[in-house]
Amino acid sequence: MAQTKKNIPSQTKQTSSKVKTVTAVGNKPFPVKWIAIGLFVASVLLYANTIKHSYVLDDNLVIYGNKLVKQGLKISNLADIFTKGYLYGTNGSNYGTYRPATIFMFALEIQLFGKDAYKQQHFMNILYYALTVLLLYILLTKIFRKYHPAFPL
């Protein structure tokens, strides 16, 4: 009995002088965008229940008790946000932790949504998380481009 070869789930495309392998399911290229969309939606759904939650742990201190955050984004605050410590706006201490992105984002959210907008701030955090997951997946698919698009999962 002669054995016949089955179709291998990859196709070879000639692009200029390079040969590019495209992973396929059946005869169609695998839809990487659907995995990306699925990851984004799953990330949003995972934390969607936090929108109704209030602040916890140091959030009250850093958001309500921080003069740099309460004033929103002002030109005069930017230098302090990016050069001072995490708790500088609360108690004037400039040692320990340096988290300018956190303070900047809180100040931006206060500027955009107002002082009592914890629901909008939680939504923004969910959006940041989902975008981070999406960017990580895209990066991993670029790094492991010779493998199946589901490999980075």
Protein architecture, described:
The chain has about 150 residues and is mainly α. The protein contains 7 helices and 3 strands; from the N terminus they run E-E-E-H-H-H-H-H-H-H. It has a 3-stranded antiparallel sheet, with no helix packed on it. The radius of gyration is 24 Å and the shape is elongated. Residues about 10-25 have low confidence and may be disordered.
What key attributes describe this structure?
153 residues, mainly alpha, 7 helices, 3 strands, 10% strand
Summed up:
By secondary structure, this protein is mainly α. It has helices spanning 32-47, 59-64, 67-70, 75-83, 88-91, 100-113, 118-143; strands at residues 10-15, 18-25, 28-29. The chain is elongated.
